[in-house]
Amino acid sequence: MSMDTSIPSVMSMDSMTPGYPMSMDSIRAPSNYESHGIYEDHPGLNPNSERVVELQTEIHDTIRDLMANYDEHEIQAAAESVHAESADISFLQYSLTDLKENGIASESLKEAFHSLGIAQTAPSTSNSLLHLSEFLTIARCDASDSLSSPLDQFEIIPLMDMKIGDLYFSFTNPSLFMLLTLSLVLLLFHFVTKNGGGKSVPNAWQSLVELIYDFVPNLVNEQIAGNVKQKFFPCILVTFTFSLFCNPQGMIPYSFTVTSHFLITLGLSFSIFIGITIVGFQRNGLHFLSFSLPAGVPLPLAPFLVLLELIPHCFRALSSGIRLFANMMAGHSSVKILSGSAWTMLCMNDLFYFIGDLGPLLIVLALTGPELGVAISQAHVSTISICIYLNDATNLHQTG
């Protein structure tokens, strides 16, 4: 029987091994992972040969990453010792899983170090630097999955869907965090007023509630004239507290900034604008429209002045929503971009890059404080805008 000339070289190699079975299915994968053309040319030689070579190559690459500070010959010897040129797929998969889960401390790599007489600590580094190198290597491998677009934090994710007839309802992450914010505010005020009120030495939570409750009345008294301020004080207090807790929410990892979405801020601003307009008509009747036409204006100019006054008046709702949305989105995105840059440098397997990361990390920390201040100040600015609009609607641009 004749046989292809490319096969005897493999057969003769295995036939020299005492006790090696001559079955065609038992031929081992070659030790050279890059050159396995014999298995590609003759797929019937071993059906699992391609998978064997793939696992051996992956073991070799994993060990190369784990032993980045070792000599190339030591890496090659350790890799060959771990997979032992075995064609047992289950054994190779077990070894690969052990390496990926336990890293440099895996049992298979420890045995390879012991059998080859290789020191488990790389000669050019200390133990602490070796652990640091291992950490940075793992971080570098996961960096592509961990880093994402700065805008991904604003993604709306449906959590629960419900369909009633032709109507479709979806409970999303903004809905969840708005519900959590309202619950937190209500519980905070409830427990403070029930359990903490009247204490001569207030705790931190009571001090926070008292600070909010003292700040809003002062703001209302400064911006609104007349006795209408007391009537609308609860509404202004709720709006300020809701914005105060929603705006900085995105600074917490794995949270969601409700006020970073234009539709949400626009809905809030338009709702408040429509409510203020209704209040203006209730208190002043049709005389409320006099804000758009100052006294003494010639009749030919009246249509143009009315139009010029109505346009900026209606744009108040739009500008309030855009201002809050833009500040929250831009600020949180900036923190995410700088944090991603610092993380990228941390993932580089180099001690000098790690030391140099102090600069980006300090920048991130320095930016976090001002961004928190911007989030709080936007609640203040939004409340001032509401007070000004309410004063204009009730007093028709007259100040008290």
TrEMBL record:
InterPro entries: ATP_synth_F0_asu, ATP_synth_F0_asu_AS, ATP_synth_F0_asu_bact/mt, F0_ATP_A_sf. It is a multi-pass membrane protein. It comes from the Eukaryota. One of its GO terms (cellular component) is proton-transporting ATP synthase complex. GO terms for molecular function: proton-transporting ATP synthase activity, rotational mechanism. Coiled coil: none annotated. Pfam families: ATP-synt_A. The keyword Ion transport applies. The chain crosses the membrane at residues 167-192, 232-256, 262-281, 288-308. Keywords: ATP synthesis, CF(0), Hydrogen ion transport, Ion transport, Membrane, Mitochondrion, Mitochondrion inner membrane, Transmembrane, Transmembrane helix, Transport. Gene3D superfamilies: ATP synthase, F0 complex, subunit A (1.20.120.220). It is found in: Mitochondrion inner membrane. PANTHER family: ATP SYNTHASE SUBUNIT A. F-type ATPases have 2 components, CF(1) - the catalytic core - and CF(0) - the membrane proton channel. CF(1) has five subunits: alpha(3), beta(3), gamma(1), delta(1), epsilon(1). CF(0) has three main subunits: a, b and c. Mitochondrial membrane ATP synthase (F(1)F(0) ATP synthase or Complex V) produces ATP from ADP in the presence of a proton gradient across the membrane which is generated by electron transport complexes of the respiratory chain. F-type ATPases consist of two structural domains, F(1) - containing the extramembraneous catalytic core and F(0) - containing the membrane proton channel, linked together by a central stalk and a peripheral stalk. During catalysis, ATP synthesis in the catalytic domain of F(1) is coupled via a rotary mechanism of the central stalk subunits to proton translocation. Belongs to the ATPase A chain family. HAMAP family: ATP_synth_a_bact. NCBIfam families: ATP_synt_6_or_A, PRK05815.2-4. This is F-ATPase protein 6.
